[in-house]
């Protein structure tokens, strides 16, 4: 079978790397890909949101399965288009992808499903939002752009003044364009944040191993929000009892309600959760593999990923007899460009990737890179996801940072405390 992976980040490199190891997989393409996917598969020069061109490529190259990495083409309806032309594809429909594409839709589904989440209200006018904030006790609030904002449309505000400034930035200053024309204002939940990913085919739910992302740019969870500066698996705060509670009170009612409402969910259901004093509550849903969570989770997966995704795409996930996992822990450290998550330079020559890759139980996943004249250059804000396995989380952390020290480029930086929460 030939497989097409859509996207160009670290998550897509992890998918290409894992799928290329599966039995019966003849070739893995990545569109548009990066320097890492070019090494572990074959890149195709088609943008991730060029749905027509991707369909044409899949038809003419006998692609047996397309796996969509990023959220933008999913929200745009790539799955519906592929299926309408008889092409096999893994991911949610356009209607179901609204779980990520619209924060207000997500909240409505949580309410109908009875799933625990933060108290909220939505607004399209700044004056009404400000009046709501004034009516609340002055304290922390979360302001979210309703639409897709590349992981940066969430402002955790320490007080009412900061919340009003965040609302103004979205509704009046147009900081996030169309995505910020509607805002969701939520109570600020406290606790440990964890990521729970599950493979779903509309009926059957198979949770993956747990993980925890690090969203803030700087050590100690300080600085601005980013797309994720690292992750580790397993998340030690999720005990078997907590996981059972998450499945029973969150995943099952969400999938059931989506089906009842006429939006059956198939694909990766990614729940960003806060483990509060009153139990787990949903912060957000994503509808695809997380980045960087996919990197440590897929490092630990021993089952045939191509088989798993193929069964899910065809509605036969119930035929799968569970998943097999490496008992070891995995830690992923993101190396970023100077200036990220704000403006940053591209085109810096990266040295030492092959040296780091040669270390035992280590894989350097490319996120923002490209090849030019036999060199690997930086081509994004998050550039590499250096990932390693270890007998324990501290050992995996040590191995990951050992690999990080082998890699250099002008302006490279990274957090030094990934996985310390464990």
From TrEMBL:
State the name under which the record lists this protein: Phosphoribosylamine--glycine ligase
Species in which this protein is naturally found: Fuerstiella marisgermanici
NCBIfam families assigned: purD
Of which family is this protein a member?
A: Belongs to the GARS family.
Cofactor(s) recorded for this entry are:
Mg(2+); Mn(2+)
Q: Which UniProt keywords apply?
A: ATP-binding, Ligase, Manganese, Metal-binding, Nucleotide-binding, Purine biosynthesis
Biological process according to GO: 'de novo' IMP biosynthetic process; purine nucleobase biosynthetic process
Q: In which pathway does it act?
A: Purine metabolism; IMP biosynthesis via de novo pathway; N(1)-(5-phospho-D-ribosyl)glycinamide from 5-phospho-alpha-D-ribose 1-diphosphate: step 2/2
Report the residue ranges that make up the ATP-grasp domain in this protein.
107-314
Molecular function terms in GO for this entry?
ATP binding; metal ion binding; phosphoribosylamine-glycine ligase activity
This protein's gene is called purD
Q: Which PANTHER family match?
A: PHOSPHORIBOSYLAMINE--GLYCINE LIGASE, PHOSPHORIBOSYLAMINE--GLYCINE LIGASE, CHLOROPLASTIC
Reactions the enzyme catalyzes: 5-phospho-beta-D-ribosylamine + glycine + ATP = N(1)-(5-phospho-beta-D-ribosyl)glycinamide + ADP + phosphate + H(+)
This entry's Enzyme Commission designation comes to 6.3.4.13
The UniProt entry, under PROSITE patterns, shows: ATP_GRASP (PS50975), GARS (PS00184)
